[in-house]
Amino acid sequence: xxxxxxxxxxxxxxxxxxxxxxxxxxxxxxxxxxxxxxxxxxxxxxxxxxxxxxxxxxxxxxxxxxxxxxxxxxxxxxxxxxxxxxxxxxxxxxxxxxxxxxxxxxxxxxxxxxxxxxxxxxxxxxxxxxxxxxxxxxxxxxxxxxxxxxxxxxxxxxxxxxxxxxxxxxxxxxxxxxxxxxxxxxxxxxxxxxxxxxxxxxxxxxxxxxxxxxxxxxxxxxxxxxxxxxxxxxxxxxxxxxxxxxxxxxxxxxxxxxxxxxxxxxxxxxxxxxxxxxxxxxxxxxxxxxxxxxxxxxxxxxxxxxxxxxxxxxxx
Length: 316
Hints:
Elements lengths: L1 H17 L1 H15 L7 H13 L4 H18 L7 H14 L18 E6 L6 H14 L4 E5 L5 H14 L2 E3 L7 H14 L4 E5 L7 H18 L6 E7 L4 H13 L4 E5 L9 H9 L3 E5 L7 E3 L2 H9 L1
Parallel strand pairs: 1-4, 1-5, 2-3, 2-4, 5-6, 6-7
Antiparallel strand pairs: 7-8
């Protein structure tokens, strides 16, 4: 029990540290916006709207939050500015909980046929391969047997980087080298995983944002070939996004959710940005659960996303 408490405390400290730039940016601005004000009025709400948009919560989601607060002001007749943080916290939490379907508490996996297959998508530079390495580490720490598939065959660097991670973590990797057919690599990876009785398969895919039709065809081919080995594969299509890019991350989410059936999100580099509000906007706009968040360079710094812990940390 002592170790579990210590581990939980460490995770909380990592989350608090990772969100510190966003917290400092947002709440310093809110304090200035309500300075000298005694109640939440139209001017305060206008300022709050601007602050949330600048934190990359997104216009659409920001307007929902403001409408909720306006509803509370109308209902309660009077709200003091001292209550604004608590109200904002409650409304953001309520909004995020609407989009939670199967929030997980650990790197244990839902019951499914073995192995559990994760296909990872996202553009180059968002931390996709690093996220795969960290995922492999966390699953291995949870006692799972993991195999990686190098289906990003368009860049030699992508295959090499995944190989480095597989060796660092100590998990098997299937590769056919640069220029190979990505679907063929995925097929071989699943065959190997079944033969070796692996628990988890993580398939890397090309990080190119080409036209939507080309992207859809490529990802569909990989999925269809995997189904020949395991009919339920992939169990998870994980879109990796760089939180520090703010609205660019939202645009990438639009493109990839249109191209394939994304059912989980990973947001990286939260520790290096004041744009952590993008987590709220993406969760709201795409109705896809945020599954993992990256909060640092170490392998342990990839965390299972917990909406309550995230909101609590933002507002503490």
